[in-house]
Amino acid sequence: MNTLPQTVVRPEFEASDLDAANHGDVARRLTAYERLSNMDSVRKFSILILFIAAWEIYTRASGVSHFLLPKFSDTAVALFQAIWSEQLLIMVWNSITILVTGYAIGLAIAAVLTTAAITTRFGSDLLSTLTAMLNPLPAIALLPLALLWFGLGSESIVFTLLHSVIWPVALNAHTGFMSVSETQRMVGRNYGLRGMTYVVKLLIPAAFPSILMGLKIGWAFAWRTLIAAELVFGGSISDTAETQSGGLGWFVFSNQMDMQIPHVFAGLFTVILVGIFVENVIFTNIEIKTVRRWGMQTS
């Protein structure tokens, strides 16, 4: 004879003092330090301040010659002097103008090569062959050839910049397009995406992290190539001698020839500041409004 299991009735329990329970803070107001430490720009600016402080302390404590390493305070004075009396901002603008020209042309050529690579087998073979041949070649090594073809002027630098931009942008974009999963491609086709609509609405957003990385690398390569080329000759040679002013690299080179070492470091520091601005303002804002907003990358 089977017997049913006995039902156990548990006594009811009611917590008499809920205030004694401590489950942690569900929500609390952040402190000023926590709010500042969560800001990416503040953290990076703090690193820059620490670097500057270490620079100043070392040069004052070690007594190193200012011909080898000037104090940051002397460099800052030279920087302000160059801005107000030596047309440093105009030279920076000349360099950026040439950089934007070469960067835009390089992006257009990279877009053509990438489009051919993802649409045809010949285009893919062409891109892989050209990158294997030319990508290991330093861009500055093409400067003598550019001088022979285009002469002493901005055209030679633009030609040199193209080599710095095309290959990293094209390679990263092609890698991003090829990394789009077949599932995503099938979903796009099931939604009726065809032609350029398929590329713009599916392929480019899916591959945009790789594309953005290529844009960053291309910019960095182009910027350092531009400064190196301008160390050879003035980066912005105008048709008339009255408007000839040169670029940022020429500012560094000319002051080095005059043994104005604080001005040399002021020029190099300006190169760093421009790089920080482009990386942490322009590209970071693009990243926030695209890949982070789409949930493809965390902050």
Helix and strand topology:
Layout: H1 32-37, H2 40-62, H3 72-85, H4 88-119, H5 121-134, H6 143-150, H7 154-178, H8 182-190, H9 195-230, H10 248-257, H11 261-292
Helix pairs in contact: 3-11, 4-5, 4-7, 4-9, 4-10, 5-7, 6-7, 7-9, 8-9, 9-10, 9-11, 10-11
What this model shows, in words?
The protein is an all-alpha fold and 299 residues long. The chain has a single domain (66-292), classed as MetI-like (MetI-like fold, Orthogonal Bundle). The protein is built from eleven helices and no strands. It has helices spanning 32-37, 40-62, 72-85, 88-119, 121-134, 143-150, 154-178, 182-190, 195-230, 248-257, 261-292. Helix 4 (88-119) packs across helix 7 (154-178), helix 6 crosses helix 7 and helix 8 (182-190) crosses helix 9. The radius of gyration is 29 Å and the shape is flat. It starts with 31 loop residues before the first helix and ends in a 7-residue tail after the last helix. The model is unreliable at 235-244 (pLDDT under 50).
